[in-house]
Amino acid sequence: MERVAERENRDPDSVREQVADGQAVIPANRHHESLDPMIIGREFATKVNANIGNSETTSDLETELEKLHTAVHYGADTVMDLGTGSDLDEIREAHIAHSPVPIGTVPLYEAVKQAGSPEAITKDLLLEIIEKQAEQGVDYMTIHAGILAEHLPLTDGRKTGIVSRGGSIMASWMEAHGEQNPLYQDFPEICEIFAEHDVTFSLGDSLRPGCLADACDEAQYAELDTLGELTRVGWDHGVQVMVEGPGHVPMHKVAENVERQQEVCDGAPFYVLGPLVTDIAPGYDHITSAIGAAMAAQAGAAMLCYVTPKEHLGLPEEEDVRDGLAAYRIAAHAADVGTERPGARDWDDALSEARYAFDWREQFALALDPDRARSFHDQTLPGDNYKEARFCSMCGAEFCSMRIDQDARETGDMDSLEGEGEGTDLEASPAAEVNRPPVGTHAAGDLPPMADHEGVDALEEAGDD
């Protein structure tokens, strides 16, 4: 809690109070020794999760560790390993051994892998896998305990049915066995496992809408009511709880979703996927969802699960992870500026000052993705002399508005700009670490090196510091 307070620039007592009241969580399994703790809650800086993981068609340890390194490098606050391929235990243990950020999982995926089909899963297998992953050091787990047998008929009129992997698995199991969801029935026992190892619940939204037409329907909100019930059961067992939120929601319904979750779940942190505010842009869903993510965070969502350009199309690769995290770091930061988090705008002001001063090197250093900013500039003006130029290739020297403005102030009657030359002191900013450069501020010394990546040396030096 003291480390979290340091990273959030907050008093430790305020951290303790928020966690004790269930309004924030610190996912920190007692077996995760490489962890640099962080906090998720609406009173703290907005956090971003990155999903990684293998599939049946792509699976090797080296690739998964590289995905982990990419995610941490580009600013993921937590990482979920959603692997469904081979070597799941080896990969999970390697992630926990090396990751400075909390690792989340969905135990149900491994249960299907071991059982061979959703219908073949047994209650004992579910508990066995949950306990094993807790012992391995998983910090938080998505548990699909909120979908009940009586909810299934409510999905019959949907356009896209049940789009949650875990939700579809549990629905299939209940249909095959004619019984209630075992994760719901055995929830108190799961709580005991979580309490022993200090695992945080991420209560899965199994009936989240998979398209705008299905948003805010009876099925989604019926499950949400159950998630509120389970939140209180978790708290009664001394377990931290956050609640997962919807994937596709039109813009005018985003705030409603957040407000309803906060009311039903007594303020437990809301962890949202997107939401995507339009369904028309496969290949660009990191954009469609970042719009909804910014709105959700401004309304009170505590953590945003990134969406990559590959959403609905394929398994993300390194560049997709980079693009997804950029979109979501922008959404999270924009929301923190919009809600006036202390010092959040200082980063914006510092970069704007560097831009107006034509301090290209400082502008690159302050950028969310310095490598990309430098690369885009150098595509047309690559020489070192252009790092001193009072223009870029967009306007050229003659039509650069900032150069024209500066010259007019120097030679005419226009006043100099207020505060010119003083600059924003980011070292003295009250902003939380995630709202100050550089992105990727977790202590990353234990991460394996990321091959052939510009700036990896700088990352490792930052990690050592």
Automatic annotation (TrEMBL):
Q: Name the cofactor(s) required for activity, per the record.
A: [4Fe-4S] cluster
- Kindly list the positions annotated as binding Zn(2+): H248, H312
PANTHER family given in the database record: PHOSPHOMETHYLPYRIMIDINE SYNTHASE, CHLOROPLASTIC, THIAMINE BIOSYNTHESIS PROTEIN THIC
Segments of this protein annotated with the region Disordered? 410-465
What is one GO biological process annotated to this record? thiamine diphosphate biosynthetic process
Q: What is the UniProt remark on how the cofactor binds and its stoichiometry? A: Binds 1 [4Fe-4S] cluster per subunit. The cluster is coordinated with 3 cysteines and an exchangeable S-adenosyl-L-methionine.
Q: Which domain of life is it from?
A: Archaea
Which principal EC class is assigned to this enzyme? Answer: lyase
Composition bias, Acidic residues:
413-425
Listed name of the protein: Phosphomethylpyrimidine synthase
Residues noted as binding [4Fe-4S] cluster in the record, renumbered to the chain: C392, C395, C400
Q: Per its UniProt record, what InterPro entries does this chain match?
A: ThiC (IPR037509), ThiC/Bza_core_dom (IPR038521), ThiC/BzaA/B (IPR002817)
**Species in which this protein is naturally found:** Natrinema limicola JCM 13563
Key words of the record = 4Fe-4S, Iron, Iron-sulfur, Lyase, Metal-binding, S-adenosyl-L-methionine, Thiamine biosynthesis, Zinc
Q: Which gene encodes it?
A: thiC
Q: What is its EC number?
A: 4.1.99.17
Q: Which residues form the signal peptide?
A: none
Q: Which family does it belong to?
A: Belongs to the ThiC family.
Q: Please name one Pfam family that this protein belongs to.
A: ThiC_Rad_SAM
Reaction(s) catalysed by this chain's protein: 5-amino-1-(5-phospho-beta-D-ribosyl)imidazole + S-adenosyl-L-methionine = 4-amino-2-methyl-5-(phosphooxymethyl)pyrimidine + CO + 5'-deoxyadenosine + formate + L-methionine + 3 H(+)
Q: Name one GO molecular function term.
A: zinc ion binding
Associated pathway: Cofactor biosynthesis; thiamine diphosphate biosynthesis
Function as written in the Swiss-Prot or TrEMBL entry:
Catalyzes the synthesis of the hydroxymethylpyrimidine phosphate (HMP-P) moiety of thiamine from aminoimidazole ribotide (AIR) in a radical S-adenosyl-L-methionine (SAM)-dependent reaction.
Residues reported in the UniProt entry to bind substrate: N51, M80, Y109, H144, S164, R165, G166, D205, S206, L207, R208, E244, Y271
